[in-house]
Amino acid sequence: xxxxxxxxxxxxxxxxxxxxxxxxxxxxxxxxxxxxxxxxxxxxxxxxxxxxxxxxxxxxxxxxxxxxxxxxxxxxxxxxxxxxxxxxxxxxxxxxxxxxxxxxxxxxxxxxxxxxxxxxxxxxxxxxxxxxxxxxxxxxxxxxxxxxxxxxxxxxxxxxxxxxxxxxxxxxx
Amino acid sequence: xxxxxxxxxxxxxxxxxxxxxxxxxxxxxxxxxxxxxxxxxxxxxxxxxxxxxxxxxxxxxxxxxxxxxxxxxxxxxxxxxxxxxxxxxxxxxxxxxxxxxxxxxxxxxxxxxxxxxxxxxxxxxxxxxxxxxxxxxxxxxxxxxxxxxxxxxxxxxxxxxxxxxxxxxxxxxxxxxxxxxxxxxxxxxxxxxxxxxxxxxxxxxxxxxxxxxxxxxxxxxxxxxxxxxxxxxxxxxxxxxxxxxxxxxxxxxxxxxx
Lengths: 173, 258
Known about the structure:
The structure holds two protein chains of two kinds.
Chain A: H1 2-5, H2 9-31, H3 34-51, H4 62-82, H5 108-117, H6 122-132, H7 138-145, H8 149-171
Helix pairs in contact in A: 2-3, 2-4, 3-4, 5-8, 6-8, 7-8
Chain B: H1 3-14, H2 20-32, H3 34-52, H4 63-75, H5 82-107, H6 111-123, H7 125-139, E1 150-157, E2 164-170, E3 177-184, E4 196-201, E5 207-213, E6 222-228, E7 238-242, E8 248-254
Antiparallel strand pairs in B: 1-2, 1-8, 2-3, 3-6, 4-5, 4-7, 7-8
Helix pairs in contact in B: 1-2, 1-3, 2-3, 5-6, 5-7
């Protein structure tokens, strides 16, 4: 991070080598085309450099920080492009693929993410996917499914806490 | 917004589906509420897991070089200045760390609440400075910075204007002098057009430029850092922020005697 703060080229390259692929992939999924995903990837690393001083390792991992920046930038871009107050995300499908693709350098983060998501039921994966990738608010999900808004909010929170707990269990020695 | 209101919205914040208004409200609360901030961080970390679980797509050739080149341009050309820039970045990190250690609470809110919070801030100035010095000690050799090198001042709006802020200065015989200004609760849409310029003025009326504010976040907040390669900040205690029309937006005095 110190290298990134100083605009150190090696630090940027190292971060890029490790995180460009998941960031680009997320951009592709949310924005729907390679050109926009590429632009988003550049914006993420630039934002990371600009915000490097604010990164606090005690509040989360670097990988999470970068992915959150990517997701927020993508959502902001969609809001800007569509001029609406909530994102209309490109819904390719609802649940992330859970494997089967060869990677030159398997990312620890991805393996860990897949294991953490295994703690969720299929219904919980679908629910989170509809919000995270589909851009549906709790209210929209509640209306679509004909269930109370409070129930959707509780389920969203419960699912996120389960993932977080699975991440924490994995991090313990 | 109460903690209860905010906690109800945090899952949707984590998955990025809050409306702009809701997000602004929640983020404003998170600036000063450590408990909700922790919950937001936990849920955000969980949501990011979804992004990492995606089957990876091939990255276009040459993108890495384009990324490096963009950051390099933003960071300035590499070379002899790198060492000084690194030092500045460390100080910036320290300054921001100080800001996040508790000034968020002081700075949160718009004009209507600022006066009360500013009064509280004044009461805790000594504590804030001590914290600033402690953080500085972590990034700069202890012998290089003494307690007397760091100074703080409060910025207030003129007349009935909105917002407020703080000015921090490092005035050191051994390290390049440095200033940081944090503003909050400003609303350029109302009367004061951006960009804002930060000026430090001494008793003789001499001025030093200490940065420019190009944009404000949803809370009307911004931070400006400036390292002075030649100038000595001794005596430049008056801090003035002017808008694009040259009108004073905020002003205050840094107490260099402390």
